[in-house]
Every structure is written in C-alpha cells, then in structure tokens.
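CO-FOLDING WORKSHEET

Operator: S.A.
Ligand of interest: NAP
Run index: 275
Mode: holo prediction, single chain
Checklist:
[x] sequence pasted
[x] SMILES validated
[ ] output reviewed
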Amino acid sequence: MTIPSVKLNNGLQMPQIGLGTASLDDDAVAPVIVSAIEAGYRHIDTAFRYGNQRGVGKGVRDSGIAREQLFVTTKLDGEFQGQNRAIVGLDECLQQLQMDYVDLLLIHWPLPQRNEYVSTWKTFETLVASGKVRSIGVSNFTPAHLEMLHAQTTIRPTTNQIQLSPRITRPDQVAYGHAHNIVTVSWSPLGQGGDLLSDPTLKAIAHAHGRSIAQIVLRWNIELGLVPIPRSANPVRLAQNLEIFDFALTPAQIAAITALDTGAEKRVDSDVQGH
Ligand SMILES: NC(=O)c1ccc[n+]([C@@H]2O[C@H](COP(=O)([O-])OP(=O)(O)OC[C@H]3O[C@@H](n4cnc5c(N)ncnc54)[C@H](OP(=O)(O)O)[C@@H]3O)[C@@H](O)[C@H]2O)c1
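OUTPUT RECEIVED:
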C-alpha cells in the first residue's frame, strides 16, 4: 500500500493519513502501533495529554522500523503554554517517546482566555532551530487565532488539526488553510465510531463502491485535500482504513457527503480536560 504525502509549507512531506491514538494508554497503544506500522502506517498522532507517549515510543521500537521512515506528531497542552514553557514540554515529550525529534509539534488548543498562544508560538519558532522538531503547527485554531499569529510572529503553522467529519465540515477553517498553505488535519474523522458510520447516504455510497462507510469517509477527506488521522485498535479495521487510495468518489458523491454537515461545531471534552 503506497500512501501519498502532502507537502507542508516548509517542504516536509507528511503521509496523507495517520494513526490516531487518543484514549489508548501506554499498554494498549504499543501493540496497536506495531500492527499499524505492519499494515503500512507511517504517520502517528499522539499528545502529551494522552499520557501514552511511552507506549507509542515502545511500539515504534518494537516494530523495528527506522525512525526516519516515520512521521510522528505530538502536542503540548495548557501547562506548556507561555513564554519558554514549550522548551521543557518538548524535552519531556521526547524523553517519554525516547526519540531525538518529532516531525510535528502542535499547540494542542489556543486557550484564548489565557492569551498565551502567541508567546507559545514564538517559543515554538525557536524550537525549529534546535533540531528537535522538523515542523510546527497548531490544533483547534480558528481563522481569527491564525490571523493573530500571522500578525505577530514569523513562521506560518504548517498544519491546523481540527475536528472534522461529514457532520462537521468547518468550511471556513478549511478555506483559510487552502488560502494560506496550512494543511488541515481532521481529528475524529470517523465521528469517534458513532452513528455517522450508519448514515444512510454514506451507506448508499459505500454500497456503490463496494467499500465500508469508514473508507468512504476517509476517501472524502483525501478528495478534499485533508489529512485524516483515524484511530482503530483493531488490526482488520486498521488495515481497511488505509485501503482508500485505489478508488475515487464522483463530484456528486463528494457534494452529497459534504451536505451531511449538521452545522453543529462540537468538540470532544475529554481532550480539553485539565486545561
Ligand atoms: N487535536 C485534538 O484536539 C484532538 C482531539 C481528539 C482526537 N484527536 C486525534 O484524532 C484521532 C482520531 O479521533 P478519535 O480517536 O476521537 O476518533 P475516530 O478516529 O473518529 O474514531 C475512532 C473510533 O472509530 C472506530 N473505527 C475505526 N475504524 C473503523 C472502521 N473501519 N469501521 C468501524 N469503526 C471504526 C474505532 O473502533 P475500533 O478501535 O474498535 O476499530 C474507534 O472507536 C485521535 O485518536 C487523536 O489522535 C485530536
């Protein structure tokens, strides 16, 4: 399975689908990482907040893959916001992962009420020169937050990781990303495995292609130039979720899927607890 890459605005290549790891603890995540790498995943998404970086690092080592063949993302949450705090945060992540660098470091949430995301980003900019991060980006930022960064800092984020699925399509954020060369990464692309995966419109399109609904949703992401990071702890579904590069949706199918947007912009509370 050859996975295409997208080119980030600093020239780095990012595989266009990644493995999500939220809610998998150290013990659970390590064998999932091994299965995922075996299945062909080369892009892994973790976060300090997930408390599973030790397990992610163990899974990578157990898999035997060379580090440079992987694209590893991690995120720093509230406790590392503010001037210079990200320096310690990144070192802590690298120590847990037992890695020398990450490919992408994200500000996990803007937390605008704290008003520290600009100073945090300025610290992120200094980390690029350290060699410990190959690229920097943000998560859960709106265009207004991105404009604020643009006005006060030098480096454009390479990516903005946001909750995005056929029910939550966030057209403004996606358009902003396209216009400013910021790749949009979709978190909870499968709606966390909920009733999205039994939607009748998706079911009909899946039937027409002889694919699963999850594959249709992930393919829709690819057609829109997005980078989905689905999570699965099941080796069969892990492999199935990668088999999306040998078929295409029609423009009418893409439009029908996009029209499933409910207009509700939800977010996963478990991902913000403790901030
Ligand atoms: N930046 C942020 O603030 C943020 C917030 C939330 C999440 N994230 C990231 O985004 C990743 C993905 O989001 P998520 O974990 O919330 O949810 P998700 O990927 O949308 O859904 C995961 C669920 O879908 C099921 N599933 C996976 N493949 C399937 C398939 N082919 N058929 C049927 N069910 C399938 C999984 O069950 P099985 O395991 O049983 O297959 C699991 O229960 C996270 O893991 C995390 O890395 C980031």
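REVIEW:
Residues 20-22, 45, 108, 139-140, 161, 187-193, 197, 212, 214, 229-234, 237, 240-241, 268, 271 surround NAP (CB under 6 Å).
The longest strand covers residues 71-76.
[x] output reviewed
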